[in-house]
Amino acid sequence: MWENMTSILKWVSILGLVAVALLSDMAGRYEGLLNLTICLTGAVFVQRAVWLKEYGWAGVCVLAVVVFSPLLLVTKIFVLMGVTCLAACLMVAAAFRPQPVVAL
């Protein structure tokens, strides 16, 4: 029961973020504030997804945070490249971690 409600709330909040993001162009002079709100909400979702060990959702939320951040396009591209590089380095470090040998 609790898992179903959590899943429903997650999907409703994601749909709400997408709807607000699509309508942010019509916000007029409040567009920057709306994009900042989307960015901060995505950051909260990233923290929660990492805490629940749902790294796929965390990656999607990081992408939303970077896309709707109030940074220039060039800065967004370099931030995404940096996050991708960091994720790749962490995966390589985890893959080459020494494994314990079973004693016979």
Note the topology.
Layout: H1 2-22, H2 31-51, H3 55-67, H4 73-95
How would you explain this protein's 3D organization?
The chain is an all-alpha fold and 104 residues long. It has 4 helices and no strands. The longest helix has 23 residues, at 73-95. The chain is flat and about 70 Å long.
Fraction of helical residues = over 70%
Distance between the termini: 46 Å
Instruction: Spell out the helices and strands N to C.
Output: HHHH
Residue-averaged pLDDT, rounded?
Answer: 80
Brief account:
With 104 residues, the chain is an all-alpha fold. The chain is 75% helix and 0% strand. It has helices at 2-22, 31-51, 55-67, 73-95.
Characteristic key phrases:
mainly alpha; 75% helix
